[in-house]
Write a structure and sequence with these properties.
about 425 residues; alpha/beta; six-stranded mixed sheet
Length: about 425
């Protein structure tokens, strides 16, 4: 297997203030990972589980058929596609379907036979994705779950406890499978928070097709992204170089936003690295004041180490920060990293709003909306209209519609 070469660039949002006060300060470190090669990514094995329960009948099902044909047409010669419908049971339709000449014609019969009936057994769909994508060295494995409704019990009742399904997504992720989710149609009819969390647990992305016609471009874009993956198992190790340095929080900001958690002390699994764009990881670090007797200047704070099966050796860089006693110098921010920090704060506020909107204290909701509004004013004009919708809706009704929250999240996910 051809080995991949990458470079890693580290940058802080601002210097550290060196003073006599016994206090630390929070700073954001951006870790930018860029492959040298801009060519094609690894071969792709994709499994699409399409909800064909009764509510999909009509325009949504026809749009889904068109989207599936479009995916088949975009497959490269080395790619393979698994396709299944799921409702009360899972019905496999395509198995290891390859791209290239004639791919759409040979897939058409199976796609045309899609019919809508039954309930929404999301648990069976996730089981099928796992079984359809066995481990294969050098192959990117991606699952996509498309649904227009809530996960249900075998009797068709809405599933109250979705924890087992979230655990299934974690199992997929631990097996090396990336899981993306798509909410199709009226966001009132499905649980955005569940689908968003499901994709997060699977280290994937939540997509929203507000109308049936939006499904095809969403799937085509996700396939393009998946075909550009050069590394699918990247990990970062963060090693403090100063006493009392505390790593407090982290996220993969771009190209796809993903909240991160440590898999072990100082270890982050960041997953996919693409050939066509840098991957940016943000780390919030509590920087201690300098020890008495130490002079101002550059100080080593963190060693950052990137490992992956596609790398011959770990890539190592050391993050140094400037300690300065001068207030003016300590406030000289890196505008690019500071913008990224704001994007992180905005997306985190949106995800909290999505998770807590039904149960949170009204004061907390207002505060989250304020954070989102400030972020838009500070360089995110694409979001102003959607944020104004949220703000006015909250003022008038004291509630936020699932559609407006879902739209805000998916618009934010597309901002680079």
């Amino acid at each position: 297997m051809t080995k991949t070469l990458v470079e890693m660039e580290l940058a802080w949002n601002k210097p550290a203030k060196n003073s006599d006060l016994k206090e630390s300060s929070d700073h954001v470190l951006r870790i930018r990972i860029s492959p040298f090669s801009k060519g094609q990514g690894l071969p792709l094995h994709m499994a699409i589980a399409l909800d064909t329960s009764g509510s999909m009948q009509g325009e949504k099902l026809e749009a889904a058929k068109k989207a599936c044909r479009s995916v088949v047409a975009q497959l490269r010669d080395g790619d393979r596609l698994e396709l299944a419908s799921f409702s009360t049971e899972v019905q496999p339709l395509l198995k290891s379907h390859t791209g290239g000449k004639g791919a759409v014609e040979t897939a058409n019969v199976a796609i045309n036979n899609l019919q809508a009936s039954g309930v929404t057994r999301t648990d069976k769909a996730l089981n099928w994705i796992q079984n359809a994508l066995p481990e294969e060295p050098g192959i990117v494995r991606v699952g996509i779950l498309i649904t227009d409704g809530h996960a249900t019990t075998p009797e068709g009742r809405i599933l109250d406890n979705v924890t087992p399904l979230l655990n299934q997504a974690e199992t997929l992720n631990s097996a090396g499978i990336v899981l993306h989710t798509v909410g199709l149609g009226d966001a009132e009819d499905f649980n955005t928070d569940f689908l968003y969390t499901l994709s997060t647990k699977g280290q994937g992305t939540f997509m929203y097709a507000d109308t049936p016609q939006e499904l095809e471009p969403e799937l085509r874009e996700r396939l393009t992204v998946s075909q550009a993956i050069a590394i699918d198992d990247a990990k970062l190790e963060l090693i403090p170089q100063l006493n009392d340095v505390k790593v407090k929080a982290f996220c993969r900001l771009s190209p796809d936003y993903l909240p991160l958690e440590e898999t072990a002390k100082g270890i982050l699994t960041i997953g996919a690295i693409r050939t066509d764009t840098p991957t940016d990881v943000l780390v919030k670090v509590e920087i201690p004041r300098l020890s008495p007797g130490k002079s101002s200047g550059e100080q080593e704070v963190l060693q950052v180490q990137l490992t992956a099966s596609a790398l011959d050796n770990p890539v190592k860089e050391t993050a140094t920060i400037l300690y300065t006693p001068e207030y003016d110098k300590s406030q000289q921010v890196n505008s690019d990293v500071e913008y990224d920090r704001g994007m992180w704060e905005y997306r985190e506020a949106l995800s909290i709003l999505l998770r807590e909107e039904k149960d949170a204290d009204p004061k907390r909701i207002r505060k989250l909306i304020e954070i989102i509004e400030i972020a838009a004013e500070n360089g995110l004009p694409q979001l102003k209209d959607q944020i104004n919708c949220l703000k006015e809706e909250w003022k008038k009704t004291g509630k936020l519609s699932p559609r407006n929250i879902t739209k805000a999240i998916t618009i934010a996910n597309k901002i680079k």
